[in-house]
Amino acid sequence: MKIIPCGSVQTIVAPDAYFTGRVLQTPIIEKEAPARLRATMVQFEPGARTAWHTHPFGQTLFVVSGAGRAQSWGEPVFEIKAGDVVSFAPGEKHWHGAGQSTVMAHIAMQEALDGKAADWLEKVTDEQYGG
Amino acid sequence: MKIIPCGSVQTIVAPDAYFTGRVLQTPIIEKEAPARLRATMVQFEPGARTAWHTHPFGQTLFVVSGAGRAQSWGEPVFEIKAGDVVSFAPGEKHWHGAGQSTVMAHIAMQEALDGKAADWLEKVTDEQYGG
């Protein structure tokens, strides 16, 4: 059993290469093989969002607070709110982020394949973000 | 993309066969193969705890609120608090629950093997729970 005490893990600013706007990431867990789980607390400031991306085994978001947006390629932009769960299938191209004037925080849960849990694609344009 | 809106999933009382005391479970996600992730919000009333159990790919607990306890077989009982992350290895025999006079809620994340995410063992005695 390993206990990672609250406050002992550094929060980082998410890399500009894969995000638009200000996004803060606090790692929760990165399990060792044969387990696959990786989980991170992610906080998006208003207007901030991920780039388009996919996950080898899909992804689950548990929205902890605030209201934001998410979209899968070819589908409309949907609003997501505190307490909602958002599930993406393996390989499903998508993005998620804050609302235009509201923060959004979620726990992101995904599974790594050969040590890689996401494949990053192009950024979400303002037009795409606006829906 | 599937959105499961907050409030749309029924909370259940955890089965007496695998838990001691009053425990409430609200499912978050159960991914379909080839993904493995299963996550549940679990709320333990004071004194309540799981039975001893193992998970094929281990387990991660994110403590959302309150203060509780966790123990691995052969190790001391440790206190766990809001914001802590607790990680168990594949096959590690353990239990987790509330404090003697405090509630504890956590998100439990585990991975299923052949559709099974836990193997349940004997209950945690009052002597074991007391540490």
Give a structural overview:
The structure is a homodimer of 131-residue chains. With 131 residues, chain A is mainly β. In chain A, a hairpin with a 6-residue loop joins strand 4 and strand 5. In chain A, 40% of the residues are buried. Chain A is 4% helix and 50% strand. Chains A and B meet through strand 1, strand 8, strand 9, strand 10 and strand 12 of A and strand 1, strand 8, strand 9, strand 10 and strand 12 of B. Strand 10 of chain A pairs antiparallel with strand 1 of chain B, so a sheet runs across the interface.
What topology does this entry show?
Two copies of one chain form a homodimer.
Chain A: E1 2-4, E2 12-13, E3 19-20, E4 23-30, E5 37-44, E6 49-50, E7 53-54, E8 59-72, E9 77-81, E10 85-88, E11 94-98, E12 104-111, E13 119-120, H1 126-130
Antiparallel strand pairs in A: 2-4, 3-6, 4-5, 5-12, 7-13, 8-9, 8-10, 8-11, 8-12
